Amino acid sequence: EPEVTQTPSHQVTQMGQEVILRCVPISNHLYFYWYRQILGQKVEFLVSFYNNEISEKSEIFDDQFSVERPDGSNFTLKIRSTKLEDSAMYFCASSESTSNQPQHFGDGTRLSIL
Amino acid sequence: GQNIDQPTEMTATEGAIVQINCTYQTSGFNGLFWYQQHAGEAPTFLSYNVLDGLEEKGRFSSFLSRSKGYSYLLLKELQMKDSASYLCAVRDEGTGANNLFFGTGTRLTVIP
Asked: B42 in contact with A at a CB cutoff of 8 Å?
């Protein structure tokens, strides 16, 4: 069964550094998403992406964050000047459409900011 | 805004049936999803409801009442591997058709 893949599985970064999290969505999916989950808390929506542009973003997704689809397969989340509170599990998800099709999640990248 | 409530923890016995409830308040409604999440792993899709009623899928069933803002996930013939968090997520048409708003999840422990 096709799956969403994320790399790296764990990223440790010094505060203030930039980090790029990578995702390969399921190949025939058109909608891509990033979510984060701080340890012990709920999954929170960050951003959705369709047709090579952001379709929605949450209040969390401020100027520190950006997303890109640099080629036909990768979908990246960049965090500039990381802060301690950015430490979380970051999940990429994709879906075929926005109707009754579920979002399929990758295994996540655990980001630890020191 | 969105408000999604689930019990924090539940315990049930292997072989039994358990019902996990979810209530929600959203400015618009465009579907409710249930996901299973084992500790340290990704959420995996279980079920989807957009119309009132029961959707059955093997040992798992999900029910929706839009007028009451209420859903439940029913797990039958519980197995030890069902120990996980169960996440209720609502797609809110009021903010756009794409993103999901998650509850805090219900941590289910299945005991022998």
From this structure: yes
Check CB contact of A106 with chain B, cutoff 8 Å: yes
- Residue B95 to residue A56, Cβ atoms within 8 A: yes
Q: Which chain B residues are within 8 Å of A33, Cβ to Cβ?
A: 98-99
CB A19 within 8 A of CB A11: yes
Radius of gyration of chain A (CA): 13
pLDDT (tens digit per residue) in B54-84? 999 899 999 999 999 999 999 999 999 999 9
Tell me which chain A residue has its CA closest to the CA of residue B91.
Answer: A98
Separation CA A100–CA A92 (nearest Å): 19
List, for residues A15-48, the tens digit of each pLDDT value.
999 999 999 999 989 999 999 999 989 999 999 9
